[in-house]
Write a structure and sequence with these properties.
Length: 267
């Protein structure tokens, strides 16, 4: 309303809003990660900065998208547009349906929404430095074919075990889990092995160090939504009528005064 009334220009509104908005997104992201995942859930603190950096980008991108849809003439229509877009960020995030299986032109939604990039950043930051886990141990192939594997460590050391050699650790060893862990829950001995195991079911998740690239993509998305929001604000303001002059009307004689004013002056 102040922009419509001419109190300040649109770009000043966008700048002042950004000065308040971005720090609040950082505070909100910090509140989501502390003290919940860090330290109550005992995620490695080495990845806290990575997760926080990506979480701020994700929150800011969603906030800027909500601002863009808030410019609708109908408030309920703007709310509906944001909720449907927010749902699409989950639908096309790569968790429910691999990106390669999404047909064009719908695949574009896998790239323009932030959760496609936020999920691998969060998972990588929380698992990269995790482990080694107590119930998982190293193992190696006993021959060149890999048909037989022997335990390198753990309670079955030196014995044949079912060894997962698809996701080796930094030393080149595979992993196996103790009998107390079900086969479906044995994902790895280290954090990168866990990420590689999850990537077989969810290709979006990976042990590759791509968190900075994905985070910058989300910041770029937020900036694009901000620019679109500013363009829409300027378009809405340009449709408004020019404010009328606030100077009082001039009367040449007492007879031209309104009746209420004349009655007061006669008293």
């Amino acid at each position: 309303r102040e922009v419509k009334d001419g109190m300040y220009r649109s770009y000043l509104y966008a700048l002042s809003n950004l000065v308040v908005q971005f720090p609040l997104m950082a505070i909100l992201s910090l509140a989501c990660l502390f003290p919940g995942p860090y330290p109550m859930m005992d995620f490695p603190l080495q990845g806290f900065g990575v997760v926080l950096f990506g979480y701020i980008a994700q929150s800011w991108a969603l906030e800027c998208m909500a601002q863009f849809f808030s410019c609708e003439d109908n408030m309920l229509l703007g709310l509906l547009n944001f909720l449907s877009s927010w749902f699409q960020t989950f639908l096309f995030s790569g968790l429910f349906l691999p990106v390669a299986n999404v047909i064009w032109p719908f695949r574009i939604f896998c790239y323009i929404f932030c959760y496609r990039w936020a999920i691998p950043v969060t998972c990588w930051g929380m698992q990269r430095w995790a482990g080694p886990y107590d119930e998982a141990f190293q193992c190696a192939a006993a021959d060149a074919t890999g048909a037989v594997a022997l335990a390198v460590a753990g309670p079955k050391q030196g014995l044949p075990v079912f060894c997962n050699l698809k996701t080796p650790d930094e030393e080149g060893y595979g992993f196996y889990c103790s009998d107390s862990i079900p086969a479906t829950g044995c994902a790895g001995r280290t954090g990168p092995q866990t990420l590689d195991s999850l990537s077989m079911a969810f290709p979006t998740i990976s042990s590759k160090d791509e968190w900075l690239t994905f985070s910058l993509l989300m910041y770029g998305m937020a900036i694009c939504w901000r620019i679109l929001h500013l363009i829409r604000v300027m378009a809405v303001c340009s449709r408004s009528a020019q404010p009328a002059s606030s100077s009082p009307p001039a009367f040449s004689s007492p007879s031209q005064l309104p009746a209420s004013v004349s009655s007061v002056s006669s008293c």
